[in-house]
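Q: Hi! First time asking for a complex rather than a single chain. Here are the components, and I think there are two in total. Is that enough to go on?
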Amino acid sequence: MAREYIIPAAAVTLANQAVSLIFVNPGTTLSLEILRAYASQAANATSAQQRVQLSTQVTAFPTVVSQAPVVLKQRDPVSAITGGIAGAAGTSGINASAEGAGAKTVVIPDSFNVLNGWLWVPTPRETLVMAASASAGLGLVFPAAPATLTSWSAGLVFAELG
Amino acid sequence: MTLPYMILQGEQTYITEEYVSSPPALVIIDDYGAIWTLGLQMAAPTDAIKERYQTRWDAPNGEFAFDVLRNGQPTGEYASRIERRKGKVRIFCRGGWKQWTGRSFV
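A: Yes, that's all I need. Here is the structure of the assembled complex.
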């Protein structure tokens, strides 16, 4: 059975630019099936629209804060993905300080009201699979800076395949 | 597993507007300040998907469903979406729409 993990970003303050809230890059042996993504803010109650994307990116990858995946089911082993700051293969991180020069391909473009937050749950045939050794990572990206930069939370839930 | 957004982080004064649905909204906040969202326990719409994900089988056709959480606590229902309409919270389950009465869904 696939093992499920979450890469959480809790109450972070974003840079005033386009920013990858979450970035994960598969390793060489296990592909990743993306099962859920979410983002929300708790800074204020001011209505505002915010663009969001799930995007693949090839090198050069974002510079992020290291964040290892957290196991969802406590009896499962730790993830093969480890925390890293460079977006390299087999690593994950949050809250990018620089987006990197690598080309992004937008897979899921969307927008949401910050009062409601954003939750992406694919139907069974719509799940994204990031292939092992594909030399590309997946980011949960705000392509434009939000009006309020503080107290953003986000998460990316994935299963390891193989 | 309960994630921070599933429970109140402080005094809540905002009520979700009518016709907002989760997903794509992350949470629904009702007139009583309760936070509604989908949990991480999955239900599958078909036998094949049930086998693949080794989960229960009572999701609406063609959709994943998840446990419905109220303030981070399971309500015992599995649904593909939660909606606030006419001041009520309702969920879409395998058997159709159910509405929250204040104690349970009917």
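A: Strands of chain B lie at 21-22, 28-29, 35-43, 65-70, 73-79, 81-85, 88-93, 96-99. Let me know if you'd like any chain examined more closely.
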